């Protein structure tokens, strides 16, 4: 009989979210943007790096027929070290389960940070389907392999100690990122990601990301599938690799992005920090930019 891994928190707390009220009330917004499908990943609930307020704003402004949670939604690695779970993180879980109750199909594909949920693959909890991978068919008939992507990360697979060491360094950078953005808010400057900037500038990081994208795309080609949607590397992307469409929905720690499918099958990456900055900009600035 398979052993059930002990979760780093009391799973019973998630059993009846539909009966609770969020700390941040769900905003009733007329004319929510409607999409056929939404993909989000790498939220890292349970860490201070999670941009919970931004994700809540996103969830209150968009809707879809299907939503894929493409791994690392809850950060079990961080929760094992110290428990951190503010009300805003509850509010995100509440909003996801509320969508499931309203009829949205929610598909949860656990990643490496929330791998403790992989043992529940094939089961449904609160209307959420848990699976290791999925095949999504777009409105225009394209078949997409949906997976987190850590399966193709040699460091995660072969050197877990190195992966945990890198995770600790990443947490330190995100702490600096939070301090930096606190200062930026004092000067009414928009959100800016230090780690995203660093990854774009460091040659080895760029090489790793490029190699990861190629390996994942090759897996889709090997299965005779038109494209692939992944998370894991915290870099939103849309490009064609040797005839295979590669999509990465990014994250909600650094870039705050989501991948969406329109009703005609068109795919788009939403950069929510930029959308919020444009929405919150003074009307005079908007008129100036338009001019």
TrEMBL record:
Entry keyword annotation includes Nucleotidyltransferase: no
Statement: the UniProt record of this protein carries the keyword Heme: no
GO biological process: lipid A biosynthetic process
Xref: InterPro entries: Calcineurin-like_PHP (IPR004843), LpxH-like (IPR043461), Metallo-depent_PP-like (IPR029052)
Organism: Sphingomonas naasensis
The protein's name in its UniProt record: UDP-2,3-diacylglucosamine diphosphatase
Keyword entries, A-Z: Cell inner membrane, Cell membrane, Manganese, Membrane, Metal-binding
Start and end residues of each Calcineurin-like phosphoesterase domain: 36-235
Gene3D superfamilies: 3.60.21.10
One GO CC term, this protein: membrane
Tree of life domain: Bacteria
Gene Ontology terms for molecular function: metal ion binding; UDP-2,3-diacylglucosamine hydrolase activity
PANTHER family documented for this protein: BLL8164 PROTEIN (PTHR34990:SF2), UDP-2,3-DIACYLGLUCOSAMINE HYDROLASE-RELATED (PTHR34990)
């Amino acid at each position: 009989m398979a052993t059930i891994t002990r979760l780093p928190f009391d799973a019973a707390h998630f059993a009846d979210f539909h009966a609770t009220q969020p700390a941040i009330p769900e905003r009733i917004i007329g004319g929510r943007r409607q999409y056929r499908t939404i993909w989000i990943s790498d939220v890292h609930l349970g860490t201070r790096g999670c941009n919970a307020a931004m994700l809540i704003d996103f969830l209150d402004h968009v809707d879809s027929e299907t939503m894929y949670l493409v791994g690392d939604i809850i950060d079990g690695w961080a929760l094992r070290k110290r428990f951190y779970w503010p009300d805003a993180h509850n509010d995100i879980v509440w909003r996801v389960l509320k969508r499931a109750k309203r009829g949205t199909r929610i598909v949860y594909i656990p990643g490496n940070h929330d791998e403790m949920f992989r043992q529940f693959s094939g089961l449904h909890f609160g209307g959420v389907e848990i699976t290791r991978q999925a095949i999504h068919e777009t409105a225009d008939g394209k078949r997409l392999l949906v997976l987190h992507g850590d399966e193709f990360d040699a460091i995660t697979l072969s050197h877990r100690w190195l992966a945990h060491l890198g995770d600790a360094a990443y947490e330190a950078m995100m702490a600096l990122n939070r301090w930096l953005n606190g200062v930026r808010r004092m000067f009414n400057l928009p959100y800016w990601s230090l780690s995203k900037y660093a990854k774009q500038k460091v040659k080895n990081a760029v090489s790793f990301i490029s190699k990861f994208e190629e390996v994942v795309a090759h897996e889709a080609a090997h299965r005779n599938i038109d494209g692939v949607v992944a998370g894991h590397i915290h870099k939103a992307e849309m490009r064609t690799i040797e005839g295979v469409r590669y999509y990465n929905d990014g994250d909600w720690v650094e870039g705050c992005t989501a991948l969406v499918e329109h009703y005609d099958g068109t795919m788009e990456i939403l950069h929510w920090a930029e959308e919020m900055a444009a929405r919150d900009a003074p009307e005079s600035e908007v008129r100036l930019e338009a001019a």
